[in-house]
User: Fold this.
Amino acid sequence: MNTEMSYLLGLISGNGEIKRSNTSTTISINVPHKKLQTENNQDVRVYVKASITDMRAALEPLIGTGLNFIQQANYSVLSLTKQNDDYLVREILRYVGNASSHEDMRINKDVFDFTFDERIYFLRGFSDVTGYIRRSNYFFEKYQHRVYLEIPQNWGLVVDICNLLKTVGVPVQNINWGHPNTRDGKLADYNKGKPNSWKKEHQIKIWANEFEKIGFAVIHKKQALSELSKELQDGIAYTGRDAKDITHKFYWDGKTSRRSSRPDHPSVNDNSIPTQIRGRNFTSWKEIAAELGYGE
Assistant:
């Protein structure tokens, strides 16, 4: 294992697709453009193209062949095709198993035994294709900036990523689960005749300064993270406190927050919800996290 391979596995786990034929395997990685302009009103596509040039320079020696690149208005795609008996293909499939898409991938237990740097690079690859940071992602105060990692309806992958973040000392500030109690807690949409509005992606939220340990390789995200992390730390310092005292906390470290009262949601029995939490109502994202395996 090396950091380049770790980064590639992170990219695939975050937003990859694997198509197998009798003789060859094609791996595609989607790099979404969350919005068309950076925080400094520059064209995101220019930055993504430059970033992918850097990715290709790092990965092509590992792959042993060129990476194909296609750029559309709202996403870019990196892809490679190799014979099924190629060593790289066999190694990738060893880590992803029978999964054909990021929607059904889990993180192989061996990844947790990678070196510290290899785990960082895996998480950076994952974040480059699932993460974003922008000013609108603040908590209560406008300087309280956060990185969002978005994972579409893959409950197990959310838990895997949170546990991998834990191994490198990065706490999760919040998880907005694609669950009826968190996405439609007061039944507002349900009562409007929208019973499935809660079926959205899961969002892992991490304080910007804490996420700097992981970082982005995509240039515009890297620049925004540096800028907004500094604003977060300066904002906390202005209140007379140290940023780490506020942000470097796992949810099980602090006081137990008061549970808010929420009505029971009729959709908690939906078949898309994992069996271990199906049919139950929750008052906090933390309860779901603990039940699914992210905890102390």
About this structure: Residues 44-63 form the longest helix (20 residues). DSSP finds ten helices and eight strands in the chain. The mean pLDDT is 86.
